[in-house]
Write a structure and sequence with these properties.
By secondary structure, the protein is an alpha+beta fold. 64% of the residues lie in helices and 13% in strands.
């Protein structure tokens, strides 16, 4: 990942995603409405990871001034597939690096969500 950019293959198409301010802002706003769906204890759920990746995709679309073509379901299926593949054989999953990178930023996102709740609550 360089400057917050990475590429994720969904279906047969390679998609650029960028983890930056707008991504985090969109994710925090979404999390305020669905905290119990996106997080389980201190961990992100498949739904949370998928939403975060979708927000990174939307962030990249905004930067490139393009209309997003993918919907949440595309990202959910991708993460679910990566999760199932990881369970079967960690060595064969092409998404593990991206999955781990996303999980590693979980703590920072959780802190941002908590701050937002404290500010608004």
């Amino acid at each position: 990942m360089t400057n917050g950019y990475t590429t994720l293959t969904i279906g047969d198409k390679s998609n650029r995603i960028k983890f930056a301010y707008l991504c985090i802002k969109l994710f925090v706003e979404a999390s305020e409405k669905k905290l119990d769906i996106y997080f389980s204890g201190k961990s992100m759920t498949v739904f949370g990871i998928a939403k975060l990746i979708q927000c990174a995709y939307i962030n990249n679309c905004e930067i490139k001034e393009t209309v997003p073509e993918l919907v949440f379901e595309n990202f959910h299926d991708c993460v679910e597939q990566a999760n199932e593949t990881t369970v079967r054989s960690a060595g064969t999953c092409t998404y593990i690096k991206k999955f781990i990178q996303i999980v590693l930023i979980n703590k920072k996102i959780q802190e941002a969500v908590n701050k937002s709740f404290r500010r608004n609550g």
